[in-house]
Amino acid sequence: MNTKEKKIQLKGLTLPELKDYFVSIDESRFRAQQVFNWMYNHLSTDFSEMQNISKELRNKLTANCELQTLNLVTTQGSSSSGTKKYLFSTFDNRKIESVVIPEKDRNTLCISTQVGCPLDCKFCATGLMGYKRNLSVGEVVDQYLLTAKEHGKKNITNIVYMGMGEPLLNYETTLKSVEIFTHELTKGLSRKRITISTAGIANKIRDLANRNLRVKLAFSLHSAFEDVRSLIMPINKKYSLNENIEALKYYAKRTKTRITFEYTMLKNLNDRDKDVKALTNLCSSLPSKINIIPFNSIKHMNPGGISSELEPTSIADIHLFADKLRNNNITVMIRETQGDDIAAACGQLAVKIK
Predict the structure, then answer these.
(1) Average pLDDT, 10 consecutive residues per value, the chain (354 residues)
(2) Could you tell me the CATH number of the domain that includes residue 20?
(3) End of a domain among 51, 66, 81?
(4) Helices marked H in the chain — which ranges?
(5) Mind telling me the catalytic residues?
(6) What is the pTM of this model?
(7) 56: domain range?
């Protein structure tokens, strides 16, 4: 058995869970608060760094516990945008990717929640690589801690759950990671700077609303028509767009937040005048905005079927489409493609699953 599997993994434990662990090893509960602070605030990956706990306890923890869930394999930097992609290896030699996206007034970390993705969205490279397993809380959190260690913690200002996988299919892990990121002891991120993206798991959207986390919610829409959405997003056959819209209305009302609709532009498929009308009707029914995303090539995955037939809407037509929506009083943002030269742009994250 792998040595790491024999040890208790502390990374990923919430403060209450950490307190329970210290009680179980006959140590004071306040030690949990100290270790929590070292792990998530000071980004420690070695118990020897924890100078305010005794050497005896440090040795005890070293012998019985682990502090790191991921190993950094490689990084790639975009020469055009400064976007940086991180390839991590898990304890069982799975590979996942994260991306740091620099912008004028913030640096956003895009993190993964699964090894691959089971949803098979036809425009997404991650879906084409298949699915292996959910990530642990520690593996989700470590993507932030390890990139923050390089960039400087204060310089990672935002987190988006938009990497590999569907966050709401790794639900409790996603929620625990948010709890850790936003805990006052970590001196970390405001909930307002965290966005969870979902392709549409309606019952989980409702439950998330009831958890009162008040994080931002982004919904991968990509078409306001059921048939088109089912064609490019098979999950729509299980959780219909209509069912998800009702859940999103509940989320917006319960949390008093605005929904972001993510919309990847696909030539002759969702960029028509009737799409403008359908989007206008949808966005007029709940507090929302549209984030338009140019379709980024997934040819590096050698796609077949409909995935191989998808074409991007031209940049000129994207702006025309956005202007039509704005003329209907819809708030629209066009996301600038960043990192496509290193396959790090939206929809491009993928590694070979062993």
Answers:
(1) 68 96 95 96 93 94 94 87 90 93 90 94 84 96 93 89 96 97 87 96 98 94 98 97 98 96 96 98 97 84 82 95 98 75 47 50
(2) 1.10.150.530
(3) 66
(4) 3-6, 15-24, 30-40, 55-64, 125-128, 137-151, 171-182, 202-210, 226-232, 241-255, 273-283, 305-309, 315-327
(5) 97, 346
(6) 0.90
(7) 3-66
